[in-house]
């Protein structure tokens, strides 16, 4: 049984979600190939070839693959599946966009957001915003999985797999890329950061969110997150959103400021190693999952925290 | 232009799901049920297109038990013109839902399908993409803006790290993300009016779609609980605990 892992990358560098999904793949098979689909992505393929346990790296390049068009990803992957029993994709926005197409084309179920591989046909996945864990067994001949990267340890380097270039499919007939606006940030990426500082509705405005959350994050070298309520209110962009419908994070340290702890927010951060909550409402549900709670108005507490961090040499 | 909006009846957004003691699933008896929040956003967007004169008809469709007609009445009260209930007591997997919707599309021939990106019960985030594939229509998922002009639509999508804009030829499948719009509350007069709008009920079996399950649910369990922590008195205490006790600074 061979399995295919679809690499997460930005055409320039490989993201460690890939190494994490490789770890998940090792529970299925020892024959693991990695597919790098992109444009000018040779460096990404070379990086993937260094992952320990990878048999072969497939590299396919075209403008549409570089733009991540779902139809192109499907057209590339489906024919490859004659040689694989399973395909694993990191459950990022990009992965969630194309992976169900592969499943539909193969006429098999997709098993979304896998957090545990029990055996080659049995998987555990969160449902109901992570309030329940569902163990499912699949009767399909081929398995199409998206994998939640944060729960798996990244596979180490140490491999020296061959990179094989394969043909890219033609342009999709009815979908055209117009443009892309990516926010350039010096901060670490939300899902990969060791520390995440998140702000909630209590911030009251986008200006306040920038003024309070960002300096603290920068002091800690942290990524910035937000609750759905803060995103809904327009205080923070959507890709900051941590929760059931946003990103799932599991950093070493998660600091929730002015976040009450709605079910759907907890779904995105409760696997963090250490959780800190700062909220003036002592009854806020966030305190039920927080390792350290500070009942205080963030307006006073955050400046104090900044000073205390400075005093501690941060 | 006809817009089809698939909607799902799910546990209410504010209700915490409880796992059944026998581990067969989540207890939905006597639990408040509502329209899936992302489906509400999809209905709102379709109704706005109709109000702008871009769409001429908005048809809502749901697959589920008889009670799902209440969810469809909500869609009608928000402004959908008519509704179709594909009635079944089975809990269908995303692939089966996509296959059933494909048969409905065959009967209705919409120009655009707008649907939620994800249902908050199964959290699969798959039906829209699967339906697009089965129909061989273009897809634009996770939409934060939809601009229809003639036979194409420009869709701005929420992607990792920013926004991407695609142009798709119609007919197409678009899935709604959170920031697409803020759904309206149905007014009382509109709720009354919705009771008189057409709601057709079709038995699932009559559509002839393959809805056989591919997955067997072995068990449904509660996730491990986090042990409660402690309260600290000051920010300085907090920093000291994080540094010396937790070792994360």
Quick gist of this model?
The complex is a heterodimer of chains A (314) and B (249). Chain A folds into two domains: 2-165, HUPs (Rossmann fold); 195-311, TPP-binding domain (Rossmann fold, 3-Layer(aba) Sandwich), CATH 3.40.50.1220.
Biggest interface between protein chains, with counts per chain?
A-B, 93 and 84 residues
Mean pLDDT across every amino acid position of chain A: 96
CATH architecture of the largest domain in chain A: 3-Layer(aba) Sandwich
SS field, number of helical segments of chain B: 6
CATH class of the largest domain in chain A: Alpha Beta
Label the overall shape of chain B: globular
Record field, number of beta strands of chain A: 16
Under the CATH scheme, the architecture of chain B is: 3-Layer(aba) Sandwich
What is the number of beta strands of chain B?
13
Shape of chain A: globular
Name of the CATH superfamily of chain B: HUPs
Give the CA-CA distance, first to last residue of chain A.
50 Å
Largest sheet of chain B: 9 strands, mixed
What is the name of the CATH topology of the largest domain in chain A?
Answer: Rossmann fold
Tell me what portion of residues of chain A adopts beta-strand conformation: 25-35%
Largest sheet of chain A: 7 strands, parallel
Strand ordering within the main sheet of chain B: 9-8-7-10-6-1-4-5-11
Number of domains of chain B: 1
C-alpha termini separation of chain B: 57 Å
